[in-house]
């Protein structure tokens, strides 16, 4: 049983690492993919002094943004390469822009490109004995201290915690959960898709226990066929620990386990709209 679990984890990490190295697809794969990003998408680069690098940021604006004077809630999302455009995605995209367009959604999406070979390092809060990592504090400091003020200055945003969400899948789900524990005054909503709690299981569980109050509205999602036998167990454990911190009558947590759901973009793409509508 331990051997099977070990092989599962290694296979999962191999897929994760492969994503980080997919920045430069071969000419053949480049031709096969199409640019599917909508007209509401733009990009810019920003210095990330906390990470000693620059970050490419993708912005989705509502269809009526230029014709209104409204302010909008914001969702910060990781792995921007996979959110909007099949041309930049590793295997498949989330179709975030098309889905929001179809809803005429009144929200701004800020997609943060992962750090390629540094993805694991940036999206994990503590070092893993086998796989390293543990630089999420600096990554989140970049989002909160450097990126968010720039977004709030350049765009018409609702800046309070109730209108600021964070969302991600896999390691992006792990770092999103860590974000709401570290910065509860910033992120009032979160969606955690297939969060890789296994990477820092003991530390994350202990941090949750020590956190006096968790007021963030949280959407939890995973599949029952993700290849990691502990995925549902870990999700249920975090759900239980969160429940100890607040009254369930407040309806602040939603958990969805998808029958047959696998650890891939299809699961996360299919779950995106329901998560968005529940959070907002």
Descriptive overview:
Mean pLDDT is 89; it is low at 1-33. The chain is built from 9 helices and 8 strands. α7 (201-210) runs parallel beside α8. With 280 residues, the protein is α/β, with parallel strands linked by helices.
User: How far is the first residue's CA from the last residue's CA?
Assistant: 41 Å
What is the spatial order of strands in the main beta sheet?
A: 1-2-4-3-5-6-7-8
User: Uncertain regions: pLDDT < 50 for 5+ in a row?
Assistant: 1-33
Number of helices: 9
By secondary-structure content and strand pairing, the structural class works out as alpha/beta
> What spatial form do the alpha-carbon principal axes imply?
globular
Report the count of strand segments: 8
- How much β-strand is present in the residues? 15-25%
Helicity, as a percent range: 25-40%
Query: In angstroms, what is the radius of gyration?
Result: 18 Å
Q: What average pLDDT do the residues reach?
A: 89
Q: Report the order of strands and helices.
A: HHEEEHEHHEHEHEHEH
What labels would you give this structure?
280 residues; alpha/beta; 8 strands; globular; single chain; disordered N terminus; eight-stranded mixed β-sheet; 18% strand
């Amino acid at each position: 049983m331990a051997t099977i679990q070990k092989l599962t984890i290694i296979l999962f990490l191999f897929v994760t690492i492969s994503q980080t190295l997919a920045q430069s697809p071969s000419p053949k794969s480049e031709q096969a993919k199409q640019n599917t990003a909508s007209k509401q998408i733009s990009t810019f680069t920003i210095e990330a002094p906390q990470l000693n690098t620059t970050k490419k940021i993708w912005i989705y604006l509502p269809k009526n943004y230029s014709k209104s004077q409204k302010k909008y809630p914001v969702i910060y999302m990781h792995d921007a390469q996979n959110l909007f455009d099949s041309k930049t995605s590793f295997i498949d995209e989330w179709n975030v822009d098309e889905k929001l367009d179809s809803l005429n959604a009144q929200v701004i999406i800020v997609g943060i490109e992962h750090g390629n070979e540094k993805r694991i390092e940036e999206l994990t809060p503590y070092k893993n004995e086998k796989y390293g990592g543990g630089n999420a504090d600096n990554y989140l400091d970049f989002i909160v201290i450097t990126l968010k003020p720039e977004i709030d200055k350049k765009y018409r945003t609702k800046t309070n915690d109730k209108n600021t969400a964070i969302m991600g899948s896999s390691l992006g789900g792990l770092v999103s959960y860590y974000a709401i524990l570290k910065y509860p005054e910033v992120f009032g909503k979160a969606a955690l898709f297939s969060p890789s709690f296994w990477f820092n299981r003991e530390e994350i569980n202990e941090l949750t226990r020590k956190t006096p109050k968790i007021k963030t509205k949280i959407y939890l999602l995973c599949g029952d066929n993700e290849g990691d036998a502990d995925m549902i167990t870990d999700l249920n454990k975090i759900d239980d620990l969160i429940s100890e911190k607040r009254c369930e009558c407040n309806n602040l947590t939603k958990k969805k386990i998808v029958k047959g759901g696998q650890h891939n973009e299809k699961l996360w793409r299919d779950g995106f709209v329901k998560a968005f509508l529940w959070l907002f």
